[in-house]
């Protein structure tokens, strides 16, 4: 057992002691704790423990810069001979017991095929996955999942992460796919944080005394009275933001420096330095120390351009730190900040990702940022990551997080983020061409499927699906109950029955149309015949005043107006006199003798529709009408007796009989059955959709995997799941699109290029720079342009296959900036290079380093010609020079073993 006091001569926190006990027990560990709380100490203990067992320990980080920093720290701590470094283009002391590397390099090793005596995983006791919360990174998160899935079970995994909401899920997943794992959670900060809000009036407490809400005195900005939130020109008034000089001055007054001042743009960071060019934050002696360091830097980095104002700002204790700056300059800034000589660093949020630059205060200039998907508020984890840089353990008793009033965000948004919980880890696992080829090279298709389904996403899905399965169980119960209720129903008969009923309904509708047509025709005939009909003629009447019943009657008197019959005075069988319009007559019975009405005394009536009850005399006539009606049908209107109407009525009668005799007629309430039927269909549909969604989620990654196999087959990388020479070449590459780069390398188009031209093509196929207003004065050669034209056809073929299977993996062929790398390869000076492009120095370094990364892999691709391998080595040597190459203390010492892939070069 190691003596902790010998290695850590200071009191350890409870969570550190708990983690050490877990490591000593041989279990894997998931440790989540706030930034700056001392998680690295756990990794250091695992290293001491591994050394005491004569075992190896790997320390992985997500960033090359962080790996470089850890390499230097560990070399000082454990001795240079015990520490090695692998970061793609750098290989230092790779046989060392402590090996620092980027997580991608370790993932590549896990896919490896090694000689018996060259397996770097042999005797590997522990692997420390620093910044494990990088699993959330959309572009690179897959790497962490692959690493954990394929890590040998004999090796302890020590996952160090910032606080996350679902640490228990991460621990349970690692335990499931790797082995026994202990979770240690700590939300306690060794240096407590005080959240402060800054407006143009000064610094104010942001949170209340309990720390669970906004401070009552921290007012939300409102427009001045009388301005009604609008300016003179009708625009909405916006709050003023405190100036950078004002904020820094206030921090200096309260002894809150040094500070990291986060600004989410490179230009913003550089402009901030200019805005405080008259501000000095260091003493005379500190300024002298900075000047000496700067002189050494400029002497050793004569090619490195640095604007004069950056150097002057540095001497005043102020600097910027972002991806547009040279790595060597950023290292100088980091070193001076760690020594307490720089008091304010204006940095983009990348500084929050693991680099060891703790400060007393962090200033977060905005609570929102621009992304590819538009402007959005910061995620709570982003806010917490930046906040976590505040408070130096062992130096400060209090850390400070300052948020600023901006035009669009104020104390309300700041307080909400300050008390928010961290975000959950989400799986970013996505199969790639390289993953497919490496799995098929080592495993069967069935085993590959099992490994794909061991992803963190699949694990989370299983947890989510348990709730979904409960819903499905309840739906199944509902369906069984509904089918039980309707068990006596034959839905086939019911459907036929419903069709018959619908047909009957339609035939009745048609009957009404036919009746209406016959009625209109008959009415026209009656109107034409009335002038020739005698008084006393028998008729049938249908009028509103007699409830629209068809009633027998006789015509007593015709009343004319302008030689047209205006109305008719009639007597009905019910002894009612009624004055009606001619259209109210529905039948005239010409074949029946008229009744003599000369002796009938009729009342005087003036209004159409008027009704008058008859007397005893008229009753005699009514009786006569009844007598005739009994002998003859006087109540069926003539339009009901037309051939079409009669035929339609007969058809309806037959249908009614068929409906009544149908087996389904005995099933019961048809409306209720329809509701049951609809509910059954709805439940069945919901069950189907939910099961399909579950299946789609469960098999999403595997479907992508099989689609990638089809694409790889199309381009000859596989033959019956066996890797061809082209497939082995593609599988040896590590990039965003291994297939595209592999096909370019084996195409033969690159073989006749000289090294600078080759470097230009490699840059074009592996680097995508998205910066506004890009330009470059160096243009590619005619030979390079010809190769571009040839490769464009190949790019379209790859894109066509990817589109066919909805695969979204970038296929770069960017020609705009290729002149930069070809000129650099031809020996152009750094100053001349940078002055001829709109890119920042850091961007130029990045695209050349990414090209170096791919060029360094060319010699390990078996399908590539020896001519191309030789030129790749020359191109690599030409472009890997200062300031692109790493600092002088990071020297590439190995040319025989590819650190970015897995195998020894057997061709050298």
UniProtKB/TrEMBL annotation:
The keyword Transferase does not apply. GO terms for cellular component: Ski complex. Residues 497-524 form a coiled coil. Keywords: ATP-binding, Coiled coil, Helicase, Hydrolase, Nucleotide-binding. SUPFAM superfamilies: P-loop containing nucleoside triphosphate hydrolases. GO terms for molecular function: ATP binding; helicase activity; hydrolase activity; nucleic acid binding. Pfam families: DEAD, DSHCT, Helicase_C. Residues 268-440 form the Helicase C-terminal domain. One of its GO terms (biological process) is nuclear-transcribed mRNA catabolic process, 3'-5' exonucleolytic nonsense-mediated decay. This is Putative DNA helicase. It comes from Prochlorococcus marinus (strain MIT 9215).
């Amino acid at each position: 057992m190691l003596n902790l006091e010998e290695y850590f001569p200071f009191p350890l926190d409870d969570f550190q002691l708990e983690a050490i006990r877990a490591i000593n027990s041989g279990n894997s560990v998931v440790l989540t704790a706030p930034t700056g709380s001392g998680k690295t100490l756990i990794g250091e203990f695992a290293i001491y423990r591994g050394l005491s067992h004569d075992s190896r320990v790997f320390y992985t980080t997500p960033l090359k810069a962080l790996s470089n920093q850890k390499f230097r720290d560990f070399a000082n701590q454990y001795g240079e001979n015990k520490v090695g470094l692998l970061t793609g283009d750098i290989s230092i002391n790779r046989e060392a017991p402590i090996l620092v590397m980027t997580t991608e390099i370790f993932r590549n090793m896990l896919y490896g095929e090694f000689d018996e005596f060259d397996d770097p995983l042999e005797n590997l006791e522990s692997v420390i996955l620093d910044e494990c919360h990088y699993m959330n990174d959309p572009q690179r998160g897959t790497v962490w999942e692959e690493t954990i899935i394929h890590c040998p079970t004999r090796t302890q995994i020590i996952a160090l992460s910032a606080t996350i909401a679902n640490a228990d899920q991460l621990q349970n997943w690692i335990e499931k796919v790797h082995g026994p794992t202990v979770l240690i959670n700590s939300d306690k900060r060794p240096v407590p944080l005080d959240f402060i809000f800054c407006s143009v009036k000064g610094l104010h407490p942001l949170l209340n005394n309990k720390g669970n809400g906004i401070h009552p005195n921290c007012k939300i900005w409102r427009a001045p009275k009388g301005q009604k939130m609008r300016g003179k020109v009708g625009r909405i008034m916006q709050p003023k933001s405190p100036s950078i000089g004002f904020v820094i001055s206030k921090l200096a007054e309260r002894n809150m420096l040094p500070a990291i001042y986060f600004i989410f743009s490179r230009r913003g960071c550089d402009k901030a330095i200019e805005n405080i060019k008259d501000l000095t934050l260091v003493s005379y002696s500190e300024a002298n120390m900075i000047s000496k360091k700067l002189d050494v830097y400029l002497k050793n980095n004569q090619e490195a351009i640095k604007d004069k104002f950056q150097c002057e700002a540095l001497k005043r204790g102020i600097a910027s730190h972002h991806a547009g700056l040279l790595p060597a300059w950023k290292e100088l800034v980091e070193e001076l900040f760690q020594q307490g000589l720089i008091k304010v660093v204006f940095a983009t949020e990348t500084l929050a990702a693991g680099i060891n630059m703790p400060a007393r205060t962090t200033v977060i200039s905005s609570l929102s940022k621009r992304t590819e998907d538009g402007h959005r508020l910061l995620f709570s984890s982003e806010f917490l990551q930046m906040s976590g840089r505040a408070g130096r353990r062992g130096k400060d008793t209090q850390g400070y997080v300052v948020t600023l009033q901006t035009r669009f965000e104020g104390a309300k948004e700041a307080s909400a983020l300050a008390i928010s919980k961290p975000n959950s880890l989400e799986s970013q696992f996505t199969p790639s061409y390289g993953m497919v080829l490496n799995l098929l090279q080592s495993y069967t298709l069935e085993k590959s499927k099992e490994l794909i389904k061991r992803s963190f996403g699949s694990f989370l899905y299983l947890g989510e699906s348990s709730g979904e399965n409960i819903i499905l169980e309840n739906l199944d119960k509902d369906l069984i109950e509904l089918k039980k209720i309707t068990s006596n129903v034959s839905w086939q008969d019911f459907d036929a029955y419903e069709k018959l009923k619908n047909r009957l309904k339609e035939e009745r509708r048609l009957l009404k149309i036919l009746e209406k047509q016959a009625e209109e025709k008959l009415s026209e005939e009656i109107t034409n015949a009335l002038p020739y009909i005698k008084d006393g003629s028998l008729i049938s009447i249908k009028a509103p005043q007699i409830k629209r019943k068809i009633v027998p009657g006789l015509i007593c008197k015709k009343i004319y107006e302008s030689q047209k019959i205006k109305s008719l005075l009639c007597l009905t069988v019910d002894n009612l006199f009624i004055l009606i319009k001619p259209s109210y007559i529905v039948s005239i019975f010409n074949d029946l003798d008229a009744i003599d009405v000369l002796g009938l005394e009729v009342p005087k009536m003036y209004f159409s529709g008027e009704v008058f009850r008859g007397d005893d005399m008229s009753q005699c006539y009514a009786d006569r009408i009844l007598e005739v009606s009994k002998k003859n049908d006087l109540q069926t209107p003539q339009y009901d007796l037309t051939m079409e109407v009669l035929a339609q009525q007969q058809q309806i009668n037959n249908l009614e009989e068929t409906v009544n005799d149908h087996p389904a007629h005995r099933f019961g309430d048809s409306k209720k059955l329809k509701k049951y039927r609809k509910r059954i269909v709805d439940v069945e549909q919901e069950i189907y959709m939910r099961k399909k969604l579950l299946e789609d989620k469960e098999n999403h990654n595997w479907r992508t995997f099989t689609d990638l196999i089809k694409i790889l087959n199309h381009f000859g990388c596989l033959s019956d799941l066996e890797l061809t020479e082209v497939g082995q070449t593609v599988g040896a590459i590590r990039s965003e699109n291994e297939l595209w780069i592999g096909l370019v390398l084996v195409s033969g188009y690159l073989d006749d290029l000289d090294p600078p031209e080759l470097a230009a093509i490699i840059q074009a196929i592996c680097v995508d720079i998205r910066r506004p207003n890009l330009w470059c004065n160096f243009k590619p050669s005619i030979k390079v342009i010809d190769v571009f034209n040839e490769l464009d056809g190949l790019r379209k073929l790859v894109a066509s296959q990817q589109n066919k299977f909805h695969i979204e993996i970038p296929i770069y062929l960017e020609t705009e900036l290729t002149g930069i790398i070809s000129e650099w390869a031809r020996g152009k000076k750094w100053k001349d290079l940078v002055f001829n492009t709109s890119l920042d120095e850091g961007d130029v370094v990045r695209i050349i380093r990414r090209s170096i990364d791919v060029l360094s892999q060319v010699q390990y691709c078996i399908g590539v010609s020896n001519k191309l391998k030789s030129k790749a080595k020359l191109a690599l040597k030409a472009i890997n020079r200062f300031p692109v190459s790493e600092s002088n203390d990071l020297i590439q010492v190995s040319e025989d073993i590819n650190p970015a892939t897995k195998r020894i070069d057997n061709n050298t």
